[in-house]
Specification:
single chain; alpha+beta; Beta-Lactamase; Arc Repressor Mutant, subunit A; 3 domains; five-stranded antiparallel sheet; 10 strands; elongated
Length: 362
């Protein structure tokens, strides 16, 4: 690192800071290859993915783009992977730092390999710097710099080693975001099948994503918001009151939901973290309950009047203590009523009891 000047460090800081703001792998990989080409003395920089156990190899991006057909050349690299000193060193040691072919082989030694004769000569590459972006005992991604002649400097190595942790962190972030978006899409489809509604909002109550059903239910139970694309005031206040707990440990979903009644129906609103890297949004999950039909279902399934009252409070998302306070009975009595309800319905928990009653609703 001693070979880097203050100006070098400033360029690295300015460059890598932009990577952390990117939200897709394609954008990030393109930026990393482009920016690293500007930072070091190379002719081409590419982002490559290896699966040693298969084996498999692919070019994810390159700046400038390769003019050769790498799909046809990849088997050549894989056939002679044992001759690539940098890759073999990484596989043996797990060392992620920047290494070049000339660290291990002289020009004459390199030219004697089948790897050079069949691949690198065609690529017009006399030296190559490579470093892994994600440390893994299995598949790994690497940033690889190519030169048509030898001449990499220790400054180039220092630059690459300096940017590596930033590239690794930014790449891990975009991979996590992609996974989180997939999970969120799956959850929303699942929620829709269950008859639930979802929306994403930030702490100020600004709505970022909302299903049509969510918008309809919010307007029906809370009225129109005083500003476009905002939650109504009551929901905003509730969201702000729950935010500290959500931000600290993501456990808001474990607490009693917001409950509001309208025209014999009840809307329950639960809170859970949204899939964002900054943790700056929450997902509101809404469930509509037909309270009158729920009471009829409880009666038709043979629940006593006392048990029906407990179930009605249970449907509001209340805890045993909250139910006891609402009905002016002891928590022990609530627990006994629930045990009898479970036995009657053939279930063993609250969620299953409510699901059984919902299925029986007329």
């Amino acid at each position: 690192m001693s070979s880097l000047t203050r100006r070098d460090y400033e360029k690295v800081v300015r460059t890598t800071a932009q990577w952390h703001a990117l939200r897709s792998a394609d954008e990030l990989i393109e930026a990393v290859t482009r920016d690293c080409l500007a930072l070091i003395d190379a002719d081409r920089v590419s982002f490559e993915h290896f699966v040693p156990t298969v084996p498999d190899f692919s070019i994810m991006a390159a700046t400038p783009a390769w003019e050769v057909d790498f799909d046809s050349l990849a088997p050549v690299l894989l056939d002679h992977l044992h001759e690539h000193p940098c890759i073999q060193h990484h596989l043996r040691t797990g060392d992620p730092t920047a290494l070049k072919i000339s660290d291990f082989l002289s020009t004459r030694q390199f030219h004697r390999t089948e790897l050079y004769r069949r691949l690198y000569r065609r690529l017009e590459c006399e030296d190559q710097f490579g470093m892994t972006i994600n440390q893994s005992t299995g598949p790994f991604s690497a940033l690889v710099a190519y030169r048509v002649r030898r001449g990499y400097t220790e400054r180039d190595r220092a630059i690459l080693n300096c940017v590596r942790p930033h590239a690794a962190r930014a790449y891990a972030n975009v991979q996590w975001l992609a996974h989180a978006r997939d999970v969120t899409r799956t959850w929303r489809r699942f929620a829709d099948l269950l008859g639930l509604a979802t929306l994403e909002a930030d702490r100020a109550g600004r709505i970022h994503n909302a299903s049509q059903r969510a918008g309809e239910w919010i307007e029906r139970f809370f009225g129109r918001a005083d500003q476009p694309a905002r939650l109504p005031a009551e929901l905003r206040r509730w969201l702000r009151s729950r935010w500290p707990r959500l931000a600290s440990d993501g456990q808001a979903a474990n607490h009693a939901p917001l409950s509001t009644d309208r025209d014999g129906d009840r809307l329950l609103v639960r809170l859970m973290p949204a899939a964002t890297a900054a943790g700056d949004r929450a997902t509101l999950v809404m469930e509509l309950q037909r309270t009158e039909s729920l009471a009829r279902a409880a009666h038709s399934m043979g629940l006593t009047a006392a048990q029906q009252r407990v179930v009605a409070e249970l449907a509001r998302g209340r805890t045993n203590r909250q139910i006891a306070a609402a009905l002016t009975i002891s928590p022990h009595t609530v627990r006994k009523h629930l045990e009898n309800v479970y036995d009657r319905l053939g279930v063993d928990n609250r969620a299953a009891a409510l699901a059984a009653l919902h299925r029986r609703q007329p």
